[in-house]
């Protein structure tokens, strides 16, 4: 029986690397005519195969000359959420020479790695639905036009898993257990002590996170090491700014091998109560599109890769980061 994960990965590689003369035949064969792609701001919703090519695929190929995918995680399973269906999820970088503007971001003329988190629903060999968060803020950083005043953690290229087995993992029977660990952690993470920003059962011998946890965050937040680093570089600033945040509104949760992935569009709702990344509190009600990818081992979360649509979040605050970068 064919592995729908590998077949879908081949389709996605072809969309960016095949000759442009063959692109529409490839899309007709592997994208549903009425497919719907929800993409990070400013692209947002794209409906129909032809629109996906014109608004997503071709601009990417032309901006990053000789585009290639470089997958770090690529997993797939049946969705545990109400929508069910077969889904794949990936952390990838689109690499190429950044020679034409992309969504208003001026090109650097040099090699760039555009980080992307992606979820695809697949039916009968065709992609019918997609959610994609391109990390445009990190692309701006690489192009020398970073639009934020501060970097909370370490800005870096997302590394692959320490075990180097995140692409089409073999031990698929472990996926349900990996997702169980993640769901338990998320359930307890919601409530927190406002003085210490701690939550029950996150750390320690009975905690969900390994003491050497690595948290890889998107442009504007950056990456960090161990729970203390996670709190300092992400959790504390975020919760001070959005203390009433509610999360977990996920359309998809899957587990595959030692990996799990969850995403909401949006996942979080919250009120902007404190300063955040240079933006004073607006007291506006906001929502946040989120993707999380996890590697688990021995009942613990070892690594977490996170994509957040911060261009959309800041737009809701009334801040145009694309204009600020140009």
Describe, in plain words, how this protein is organized in 3D:
This is Ester cyclase. InterPro entries: Cyclase_SnoaL-like (IPR009959), NTF2-like_dom_sf (IPR032710). It comes from Pararhizobium mangrovi. The chain is α+β, with helices and mostly antiparallel strands and 326 residues long. The chain folds into two domains: 4-142, Nuclear Transport Factor 2, Chain: A (Roll), CATH 3.10.450.50; 172-324, Nuclear Transport Factor 2, Chain: A, CATH 3.10.450. Helices cover 27% and strands 35% of the residues. It has helices spanning 4-17, 23-30, 49-63, 136-142, 175-189, 226-241, 310-317, 321-324; strands at residues 31-39, 44-47, 64-78, 86-98, 111-123, 126-134, 209-216, 224-225, 252-256, 259-271, 285-297, 300-308. It has a six-stranded mixed sheet with strand order 2-1-6-5-4-3. Strands 8-7-12-11-10-9 form a six-stranded mixed sheet, sandwiched between helices. The termini are far apart.
Tell me the layout of helices and strands:
Elements: H1 4-17, H2 23-30, E1 31-39, E2 44-47, H3 49-63, E3 64-78, E4 86-98, E5 111-123, E6 126-134, H4 136-142, H5 175-189, E7 209-216, E8 224-225, H6 226-241, E9 252-256, E10 259-271, E11 285-297, E12 300-308, H7 310-317, H8 321-324
Parallel strand pairs: 1-6, 7-12
Antiparallel strand pairs: 1-2, 3-4, 4-5, 5-6, 7-8, 9-10, 10-11, 11-12
